[in-house]
Each structure stands twice: as structure tokens, then as C-alpha cells.
Automatic annotation (TrEMBL):
<keyword id="KW-0808">Transferase</keyword>
<dbReference type="InterPro" id="IPR000182">
    <property type="entry name" value="GNAT_dom"/>
</dbReference>
<dbReference type="Pfam" id="PF13302">
    <property type="entry name" value="Acetyltransf_3"/>
</dbReference>
<dbReference type="InterPro" id="IPR051531">
    <property type="entry name" value="N-acetyltransferase"/>
</dbReference>
<feature type="domain" description="N-acetyltransferase">
    <location>
        <begin position="9"/>
        <end position="182"/>
    </location>
</feature>
<dbReference type="GO" id="GO:0016747">
    <property type="term" value="F:acyltransferase activity, transferring groups other than amino-acyl groups"/>
</dbReference>
<dbReference type="InterPro" id="IPR016181">
    <property type="entry name" value="Acyl_CoA_acyltransferase"/>
</dbReference>
<protein>
    <submittedName>
        <fullName>Acetyltransferase</fullName>
    </submittedName>
</protein>
Length: 182
């Protein structure tokens, strides 16, 4: 299911099609992807069978949210290549089993697709849509050493508000936010 489209990209569900599962495994088994994603992400993947489990888990976790919140594949329109993941969802709190009312946007790209602006373009579409629904603020939370991810947040026009420990089990994370235009 397509949930959003941009000039270069289609944002859609990850599926259990073999090409999606192979791409997902190739991406999330890489240390450079796992490095900054936190302990709760349980990465890197170590067995191709885990790709299917991930897709199922993402579908189940956000089944009640329709196409508003979720974890989606970013596909390049011209080539059909899946270049990564974009997500929009409620942030887990200090107690990670409980979701807060704070909405986060996030991005993961396969290293072969870094440097083209895909993360920024995909995230912008989701953030604009979410703010247009009346949500006052969208957050991005980033490991303090993840300069590439902080650059995405800045390209989106997000404001850096320092390190906060409100989410993801109390992990200290650089926090960026974008407010709905007045
Ligand atoms: C974070 C991550 C997605 C950033 O990837 P990225 O490719 O740098 O980000 P974008 O897709 O927005 O691309 C921006 C880059 O493309 C360049 N670019 C090229 N063509 C472009 C275009 N048409 N439009 C916009 N930017 C373009 C930009 O100049 C920029 O490069 P620069 O940083 O050298 O100036 C990537 O490093 C990643 O997946 N890391 C691992 C997972 C991760 O840590 N995710 C974040 C968790 S918080």
C-alpha cells in the first residue's frame, strides 16, 4: 500500500515479497545501520529469516494506526529500488513498553543510497502531512554521535533543543523538533 509520494519517491509498506525481505536483511544486518539505533532495536540482524519477523512486527505494531503511523519502505520511483526506511510513530517513553503522545520521525537508508537527499525528502512528506492534521510538534531523536542523522533533521528545518531522556527507556538523545506553523 502506498502511503505517500514525493517527486522522486514512493513511501509504501514493507512487504514479505522476496526482494523486500532480501533488501531489508541486507540493510539491517549492517553494523553501520545498527550502530546508532539503540539496544531496543535488536540489531544487527544475523539471520535472513529475521527479515520476515521484522515486517510482521511492524505491521502488527501499527495495525491500529492505518497509514498515519508506521514504518515504511522508501522506493525510488524511476528505478524501483528500495533505498531504506522512513518512520512516523509515537515515541516509547522512559518505560519503553508505554508509548507517549509525542510523535517521532525517523530514517534509515541503505549505505548504497546515502548522499541523494532521500531521507530528507521522505521525512519531509510525512512531517508535513502530520503537522497538517493538527499535531502541534513532531520530534526526531538522535544518538549524540550520529552527525549524518542530525544533518537530516536540520535540513528538515527542525530545531535542536538539546539532549533529552524522556524516551526510549531514558536513553540520552539529541532532540530536534518541528512545530506546526502558526
Ligand atoms: C542518517 C542517514 C539516513 C543520512 O543519510 P543521508 O544520505 O546523509 O541523508 P539524505 O538522504 O537526506 O541525503 C542528504 C545528502 O544528500 C545530498 N544530496 C544529493 N542530492 C540531493 C538532492 N537532490 N536533494 C537533497 N540532498 C541531496 C545532500 O547534499 C546531503 O549530502 P551531504 O551530507 O554530504 O551534504 C544515513 O546516514 C543512515 O541511514 N544512517 C544509518 C541509520 C541511522 O543512523 N539512522 C538515523 C537514526 S536517528
Amino acid at each position: 500500500m502506498t502511503i505517500a509520494a514525493t517527486p522522486r519517491l514512493v513511501l509504501r509498506n514493507w512487504t514479505e515479497a522476496p526482494a523486500d525481505l532480501a533488501r531489508l536483511y541486507d540493510m539491517y544486518s549492517r553494523p553501520e545501520i545498527a550502530r546508532f539505533l539503540g539496544a531496543s532495536a535488536n540489531l544487527p540482524l544475523t539471520d535472513p529469516a529475521q527479515a520476515r519477523t521484522r515486517v510482521t512486527r511492524w505491521q502488527e505494531r501499527h495495525a491500529d494506526h492505518g497509514d498515519r503511523y508506521g514504518v515504511w519502505a522508501i522506493e525510488v520511483r524511476d528505478s524501483g529500488l528500495v533505498v531504506g526506511t522512513v518512520l512516523l510513530k509515537p515515541l516509547p517513553g522512559r518505560d519503553e513498553s508505554r508509548l507517549t503522545d509525542d510523535i517521532e520521525v525517523g530514517w534509515h537508508l541503505h549505505p548504497d543510497s546515502w548522499g541523494h537527499g532521500y531521507a530528507t525528502e521522505a521525512a519531509r512528506a510525512l512531517v508535513d502531512r502530520e503537522l497538517a492534521t493538527g499535531t502541534p510538534v513532531v520530534y526526531a531523536v538522535v544518538h549524540p554521535e550520529n552527525t549524518a542523522s542530525m544533518a537530516v533533521a536540520r535540513r528538515l528545518g527542525m530545531t535542536h533543543v538539546g539532549r533529552r531522556t524522556d524516551w526510549y527507556g531514558g536513553e540520552e538523545l539529541e532532540t530536534f523538533l518541528l512545530r506546526r506553523p502558526a
